[in-house]
TrEMBL record, chain A:
Name the record gives this protein: Metal-dependent hydrolase
InterPro entries: Haem_Oase-like_multi-hlx, UCP07580
Species in which this protein is naturally found: Actinokineospora spheciospongiae
Length: 284, 338
């Protein structure tokens, strides 16, 4: 039986970063920094989502989808600011993320920003970016599901950071169909879906890998270089998603009949949000 | 927060991450990749299709109307064609458009296995429910949308359901689906509490409390690992939230109404049209009448998506919650609103 649509709305979460240690997965600087990359990439990335979705809003001819897009926009905006708080905390601990964030900002605001184009082409550029966002959201849903299940507390990970990641992951699972449905509603051409995934997948991996390397290099605690074998070891402990799983996930996005509602379970996300300290404190 | 708009194509990549005297290698490589996407976008103009209009309206007719308690009626809704209705799960609600055009949301309180009809129950408390009580009869056609859920039942339990008054409606179908559960049902008096007779067969799995029970009394049955599902008046929910640190599911409500507001005016750009904001509405509500494409989300002032700059100041406002005396000129040439 198809799941009835979930009403999407942002949650007014707040996090107190003051007690979060630099290596918040104890003894795992690499796993810490792989997950820290989210704080450097997502604020600008999610602001770009909000900007692009805001442009798509007037074109929507489906009231249900419009409400979902409005809920999505708010959730993404709150995610961006929550990760911004974690990025500011990194800076306060002596690891200033500005050089990396400036590049990310250039990517989303300049390279992927609005261009001075004739109206019909500008509209296609909007659709192209919506397809890119749908591809990226496929990964955020996969990672959201991963983080809901990852044995992070068994490894002694800081509870505030785990709550940030799981609340965020749960909302990604909650709204995992919205970007896909929006693209399908406004355009939906399959070649565009494939080409945007073909680029978004590798570029995201590259971006996150170089971000991890840069964080390890600039960590004032000098944890040593980022090594692939440390990543494999952390993945075996369940502290990082494994590459094979991500590749499989990429493949699953490609069939014409694919729809995000087929993977992941909303129930798991809903169950976490009922216990998340941040989401509970925000409930009104 | 808004990305700069209408920039010319980027001429260079950002500086190298490690201070080398050349533009960053990754971004230099991404430029032609994005240029290819732009070229493909130009090519895509030809075979673009119009966006289909999706109609979500579901016409139904009232096939039964019962008085369930003092001030509470239930309506049974069926499709005029006799077709099966869309499936739903416990915790779902319908958006109901009343004959006057008012829209209200009501929880489904019937049996999810019954695909032929929906049941909702309405307590008389305001304009919308007044219309349901006075003007909706057996045979009245209504238009509904949904079902959707903001209160899904998940997990194996144990579940402790806490209902206050008309808050029993989303809980009733949950009792059919859950296995390990207890219900605490509170109300002012038994005469005002709907569906007591339907709960009779559940025996001592249901505790009925009258008056205004305190949170500890509502939570007597909660144990570590219990998932609490609460639906009722906001003070009851706040008390439960303060006393219970385990899993708590509440239905999420719409933004609070504007109280003690002063009317003011929005001007859409210098020399643009002037939109009056009434005392009892938000600037967002007024702005959306003039510009349906306005971006917003939370309507409670925290998500920031509706922030608009004010012309000829460095000031900005969150149109969902901020109010300004007199008239403000909004900078709505911002491309994301065009």
């Amino acid at each position: 039986m198809p799941e009835p649509a979930l009403v999407l709305a942002p949650r007014a979460v707040t996090f107190d970063w003051s007690a979060v240690p630099a290596h918040w997965v104890p003894g795992e600087p690499l796993a810490t920094h792989v997950m820290n990359t989210l704080h450097l990439v997502l604020p600008e990335g999610e602001r770009w989502f909000v900007h692009v979705f805001g442009q798509a809003l007037p074109h929507i001819r489906d009231d249900k989808l419009r409400e979902e897009v409005i809920g999505f926009i708010g959730q993404e905006a709150v995610h961006a600011e929550a990760h911004q708080g974690a990025a500011d905390h990194l800076a306060a601990q002596g690891l200033d993320p500005a050089p990396f964030v400036d590049q990310v900002s250039w990517l989303f605001r300049t390279l992927l920003g609005d261009r001075d184009l004739p109206a019909p082409v500008a509209h296609q550029w909007l659709l192209e970016r919506l397809a890119m966002i749908a591809a990226i959201e496929h990964f955020t849903a996969v990672l959201g599901r991963w983080v809901l299940r990852a044995p992070l507390e068994r490894a002694g990970a800081d509870p505030t950071m785990v709550d940030l990641l799981r609340w965020h992951g749960a909302e990604e699972v909650e709204h995992r169909s919205v970007a896909f449905d929006l693209y399908a509603h406004l355009d939906g051409r399959w070649p565009r879906r494939v080409r945007t995934m073909a680029v978004a997948g590798p570029v995201l991996l590259w971006l996150f890998a170089r971000c991890t390397r840069w964080l390890m290099r600039n960590d004032p605690l000098r944890p040593g270089p980022a090594r692939l074998r440390d990543a494999h070891r952390a993945a075996r402990r369940g502290l990082l998603p494994d590459l094979a799983g991500l590749l499989r996930a990429t493949w699953q996005y490609l069939p014409r009949a694919y729809h995000p509602s087929q993977d992941g379970t909303t129930d798991e996300a809903v169950a976490y949000l009922a216990t998340s300290p941040a989401a509970r404190a925000a409930a009104r | 927060m808004t990305p700069e708009t209408r920039t010319p194509p980027p001429a260079v990549a950002p500086p190298d991450l490690y201070g080398r005297a050349r533009p960053d290698r990754m971004y230099r490589l991404l430029r032609p990749v994005v240029a290819a996407h732009l070229w493909l976008s130009k090519r895509s103009v030809r075979r673009g299709r119009p966006v289909p209009v999706v109609d979500r309206d579901l016409p139904v007719v009232v096939s039964d109307r019962r008085v369930e308690a003092d001030g509470v009626v239930s309506l049974t809704l069926t499709a005029p064609s006799g077709d099966p209705l869309p499936p739903w799960r416990p915790g779902c609600h319908l958006d109901v458009r009343l004959p006057s055009g008012l829209r209200r949301q009501y929880s489904l309180c019937g049996d999810p296995a019954d695909r032929a009809s929906y049941r909702i129950a309405v307590r008389l408390v305001g304009e919308g429910s007044g219309e349901v009580h006075s003007a909706v009869r057996v045979g009245t056609p209504l238009v509904v949308r949904g079902p959707r859920t903001a209160f899904p039942l998940v997990g194996p339990g144990p579940h402790l359901f806490i209902a206050g008054g008309i808050g029993i409606t989303p809980i009733l179908p949950m009792l059919r689906a859950a296995t390990d559960w207890h219900l605490v049902y509170a109300g002012r008096s038994r005469a005002t509490m709907p569906f007591l007779a339907e709960l009779e067969p559940h025996g001592d799995r249901v505790t009925v409390l009258t008056g205004v029970p305190a949170a500890p009394e509502l939570l007597t049955r909660a144990r570590p690992g219990t998932a609490v599902y609460a639906c009722g008046p906001p003070p009851m929910l706040d008390a439960i939230k303060a006393h219970w640190s385990g899993a708590l599911h509440c239905e999420r409500f719409s933004p609070p109404p504007v109280v003690d507001g002063e009317p003011f005016e929005l001007q859409l750009g210098p020399g643009g049209p002037v939109v009056p904001v009434a005392a009892d509405e938000s600037a967002l509500t007024a702005l959306r009448r003039a510009r349906p494409q306005t971006v917003y989300s939370c309507q409670q002032g925290f998500c920031g998506t509706c922030r608009l700059n004010l012309v000829s100041t460095t000031d900005s406002m969150l149109v969902c919650t901020d109010r300004r005396p007199g008239r403000v000129v909004l900078d709505v040439r911002d491309s994301r609103d065009s």
